[in-house]
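Problem 12. The chain below contains 153 residues. Write out its predicted structure in token notation.
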Amino acid sequence: MPLFSRNRPSPSNQPANTSASAPAPAPATDPSHCRSLFRSSPNSTAPSPNPNGGLTNGAPTNTSPQRSSILRHDAEDASITAARERVMSAEAAEKDADKALLNARAAVREAREQVKILEREAGEQARLAKIKQKQAANISARAKPLGRHDVNT
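Solution.
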């Protein structure tokens, strides 16, 4: 017998149906006569899936499903929930502190850059003031000999 074939009589062995109004009867599908690699017999005691989540071998099971409270969040102890919330709050506070630290570092960096700019500007102003002072001293030295024809003296 082939592995995946069914035992059906061939159409040549069946008598010809002359009546068009009466359909041919469907072959009986008795599960005890069905031969398949993947189907077990109805009398086997192998466990079958239970809609309540457990396995059964024909014996009645509890009508209430058994659930593990370890993996479920809605059946947690209040202290566990409170501890989880405190940890989440601490994580959020730490994240905010990290942002504040980054903002503070950026503010310090900007302040230092501003101080450097001011020092450069002050140095430039001091250099220009020295040049101006030298020019004023030169002009003053040139102006000293003037006034010998002053009449009021």
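Discussion. The helical segments are 78-143. Students who got a different answer should revisit the alignment rule from Section 12.3.
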